[in-house]
Amino acid sequence: MEVTPNHTQTVSGWAAMDESGKIVPFVFKRRENGVDDVTIKVKYCGMCHTDLHFIHNDWGITMYPVVPGHEITGVVTKHLCQSPATSLPEVPQHALHKLINVWTTLVMEVTPNHTQTVSGWAAMDESGKIVPFVFKRRENGVDDVTIKVKYCGMCHTDLHFIHNDWGITMYPVVPGHEITGVVTKVGTNVAGFKVGDRVGVGCIAASCLDCEHCRRSEENYCDKVALTYNGIFWDGSITYGGYSGMLVAHKRFVVRIPDTLPLDAAAPLLCAGITVYSPMKQHGMLQADAAGRRLGVVGLGGLGHVAVKFGKAFGLHVTVISTSPAKEREARENLKADNFVVSTDQKQMQAMTRSLDYIIDTVAATHSLGPILELLKVNGKLVLVGAPEKPVELPSFPLIFGKRTVSGSMTGGMKETQEMMDICGEHNITCDIEIVSTDRINDALARLARNDVRYRFVINVGGDSKL
């Protein structure tokens, strides 16, 4: 057909204009997304010998201009409710793809119950600049809790999504998964919360609620988990996080904040806190009979400083292991660590050989685990919660000759998160924070990228002086 009136989407591509075979930039129109269609943001396209044949009109059937390419991968950006689609398999080296669930769940174009207008702050592209952003949230459902956001912590994960470091960001992205606030509405099926309650929401917005992991309250390991932002919710909508004035959350994924904890300093516990608490509990570090045992904490940042606090609260002898000698005073005087070791000092490290029962490694920079493993006693346990971009070096001999165990852990389930929050209330454990006003978010992100914070930024979303 000569006329295609629904071809209104302008697309930039590359085409051959004639039999010379030269490929040049080419702007053309594609059709609007129909009821049976899927719109895809193309990420990669393979080059096939068939492309050459069509480009040069070797078979005499080319219709110029021709835009080649039939080995196409990308990310779904739009579809209507009737549309089927084939999902890509999980890419092994990108486990986060499965976590985000972008490629295996489609984005619905229509979410008719999203009628609540919300003001927030979003990144619109990979430049990473956060700007004011007005969007829609769903109405409060029968199982939902509506929360007026008071504070939201800023996590390094926010930086990765803002800049699309992992190639899976769906812009505009509203970051934030360390959220505290006050309940303003509850659904008819909600029994555990009431208007006025102080609550928090962490990394998870949804899960299947029925798999073996969900039944054990390990929702963070559910294959269908949806993150609090840049995830896909049950209704097909993209989730927006806590850099916003209001949040609607399913009751399963809301926790109570004890009255003894300030909402600002409690916010990072919903990520940093549970990330270290979960493996410390899982591996017996917080049991009553563990008191007096020796814990090493590698890295003194957002995660590490909370691990030190948990260790001290449960009677462990805590050694901080850091590359920075300048952090010793902070570790000993403010966090009450019992010992401090500079990991680049061979004499100090050798003196600590086979002295620790447990080590929790919070460092996200690439480093060798060999020297760290040597610090463990026989049967000692090393838990990794930091996520370096490149694979860590893991020598086998320290494992074999020391009968040592290495494991990993990712945040925690909801039952565990509530338990952690209650324990923090009992022991007065909070994160050391720096409050950020909403007009200084970009400045704080720049400092966060330089690790210029002690130890967590928290956005004063509600504009309150203190809660």
Automatic annotation (TrEMBL):
The keyword Glycoprotein does not apply. Signal peptide: none annotated. InterPro entries: ADH-like_C, ADH-like_N, ADH_Zn_CS, CAD-like, ER, GroES-like_sf, NAD(P)-bd_dom_sf. Its cofactor is Zn(2+). The keyword Protein transport does not apply. It catalyses: (E)-4-coumaroyl alcohol + NADP(+) = (E)-4-coumaraldehyde + NADPH + H(+); (E)-cinnamyl alcohol + NADP(+) = (E)-cinnamaldehyde + NADPH + H(+); (E)-sinapyl alcohol + NADP(+) = (E)-sinapaldehyde + NADPH + H(+); (E)-caffeyl alcohol + NADP(+) = (E)-caffeyl aldehyde + NADPH + H(+). PROSITE patterns: ADH_ZINC. Pathway: Aromatic compound metabolism; phenylpropanoid biosynthesis. GO terms for biological process: lignin biosynthetic process. It comes from the Eukaryota. Its EC number is 1.1.1.195. Gene3D superfamilies: Medium-chain alcohol dehydrogenases, catalytic domain (3.90.180.10), NAD(P)-binding Rossmann-like Domain (3.40.50.720). SMART domains: PKS_ER. It is an enzyme of class 1 (oxidoreductase). Residues 123-459 form the Enoyl reductase (ER) domain. Keywords: Lignin biosynthesis, Metal-binding, NADP, Oxidoreductase, Zinc. One of its GO terms (molecular function) is cinnamyl-alcohol dehydrogenase activity. Homodimer. Belongs to the zinc-containing alcohol dehydrogenase family. This is cinnamyl-alcohol dehydrogenase. It comes from Oryza sativa subsp. indica (Rice).
